[in-house]
Amino acid sequence: MAQTDYGADLATGPVIEAKGLGVKFAVNRRRKRSLREMFIHGTKRDPNAEGDEFWPLRDVSFEVARGDCVGIVGKNGTGKSTLLKMIAGVLIPDEGEVHVRGKVAPLLELRAGFNDNLTGRENVYLVGSLHGMSEKQIDERFEEIVDFAEIKSKFVDTPVRHYSSGMKVRLGFALISQLEHPIMLVDEVLAVGDKAFKRKCYEAIERMLANHRTMVLVSHNEGDLRRFCNRGLYIKGGSLAVDTDIEAALAAYNEDTKAEIAKRKKADEAKKKRAEEAEKKAEEGKDGGQAA
Ligand SMILES: Nc1ncnc2c1ncn2[C@@H]1O[C@H](COP(=O)(O)OP(=O)(O)OP(=O)(O)O)[C@@H](O)[C@H]1O
Q: Where is the ABC transporter domain positioned along the sequence (predicted)?
């Protein structure tokens, strides 16, 4: 398939450039939303709610060259998805800046933008056009999208509220994977569907990765990371701890995980020992009382 270039800077220079990137969240309050976020989630805010602020990510700087496939690794809740959302432009950073040269295909929340009351067909046209596909392009690819998603023909014109969650996600993946945007952001979506569908997703990603497209992948699956990525960013405690090749990033992450497990085990043992000693003392006290 001919690859269209949607504006990637084919000259030298990084396609993604993050400088001192940071974002803060309010624990109990909705944050400022970008237009796309508003489209996806609505505009409601709770003006009365207040809460403490925290920075899941701060002072994150890195560059991604064209053709790189970068894996982001780190513990749960360290800000990996948040980073991807800032690159995708669905989350506005509170500090620093991110420059993205070229259009982004966001394989993030695959059901984003879907309207439950519209049919599968209508949603494909709606979400496709949101991502910049023309009606003609969608017409040409419609059958392929539906076939890839394994949506039976009787469901194509049924409102997606009657779809299973798997069907919606498959349709989302099938649609976004049709985008020819030069940058792909992928968040855990490779866990989508059964084994056969997963294999199709892998093949689709491999096809997308051909032709020097750039990918940033968030995953906890080391096999996927090793399969696709040449570079690795390890996010630790809200900042970028390691920016290197994927093997070294995974090694640093695994080493920290091992050290943390050992520390927790030691703390648990110490706690257990203290409890046993306290129990023993209490028993001795009881015995002493009885003897007196
Ligand atoms: N809209 C939001 N408002 C408030 N806090 C948020 C919001 N989105 C994410 N967070 C918090 O920010 C932190 C980072 O979340 P994020 O989803 O980016 O982590 P992650 O590294 O992708 O986690 P996981 O590996 O579990 O997917 C978490 O503490 C999360 O609870």
A: 35-262
